[in-house]
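*Target chain*
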Amino acid sequence: MKIVIIGDGKVGSTIAEQLSLEGHDVIIIDRENSALFRSGNIMDLICIEGNGATVETQNQAGVGQADALIAATSADEVNMLCCLLGKKLGAKYTVARVRDPEYFKQMNLIKEDLGINMAVNPEFTTAQEISRLLRFPFAQKIELFARGGVELVEMKIQENNPLHGMALFEVYKELGVRVLICAVQRDGEVVIPSGNFVLQKGDKINITASHNEISKFFKRLGVFRTAAKSVMIVGGSRLAYYLAMDLIAINIKVKIIEKDMKRCEYLCEKLPEAVIIHGDGTDKELLQEEGLESTDALVMLTGMDEENIVVALYGKMCNVSKVIAKINKLAFYEILDRLDLDSIISPKAVAANHIVRYIRSRKAGGSGNRVETLIRLVNDQVEAVEFRVSEASPVVGIPLKDLKRKKQTLVAIITRGARVIIPTGDDSIQVGDYVVIVTTEKRLLELDDILL
């Protein structure tokens, strides 16, 4: 596909890198030559310096012949104008990054008139992910499939965990729960494990099942923790606003610490149920005065990765039950992964995953068995891809044991109506199912792509 991206910032460059690696023809537009120079050096794409909100620049990029236009500048108004122009010029699909809460809440009313096929709000989507982690603090990461009926949860096996030394076939027998351990990361390597795989302390595992079975699994391991009842947020950004709104709606007490006085006044007006503190959230004494040690969760959302990491580590030292840090630069993910942090989250990665999923489903063309959900796991080394099976294909009706599948490709979950099936070799995929595939094989566009 030919894809034009307007805006070479954090989100734009992340999207460009992922789409370029997937083999798309990517053209990126930005006003700043320095940003384009960096992208041109590290990615296989075409760079155009100019204003992407003008007809002249869009014509230069060939937007009229593009399969997709993605507007990811820092200005919502510019992104909406870019999509309107792009659609008028002939772009098949348009995606706009819209961050402002006032704009985003009315997008369903106006996006068709603006020629926008998809609106993405990185902060809103990230806030939803953090909210899930605070409701289920025993997990390092939680993803949803099958319209919320199936969960994929990431956890690390600590020294005293009963899973240490168990083979997978023993796990299901000993704990008596229907879950599937579908991916294991050990010493930087990722495995789609067989039943004989033996778990060890330090392994990071991904488990999938229904919510009830996941909860039962963690309770029987003795690591289940109830939802946070009080949360301290450091940094009063848009992400903090969206997160606070979500938490207040489910009766969780929220305290936000923010340096900027005007931002504090804004948050006080918009979030009357929250406690807003004007001060430096990296100040140890202030954190102690505001009750860090008695709060259930600490969420670090400042604009500085270093501050988020250091204060999050301090929170762990103070025995805060759940600590989450927002990170923009994921180049050193392997190092961050070794730190004693519960969860690390990146808004730009969240936004990029949503857009790549949308582009991949459009690329699949006329097939009905297309991508519904796309999740990247363990530092992008594994993908969990959900398909809705809406028509017959070579995978339908064949027992899984007889399907000639690609290596390191696992049919993890089949959802059939209200039933969540952990499939065996005798199960088969049927029309109407939702199917989750976990694989190290990247770029699955259709369900049939799992076949040799």
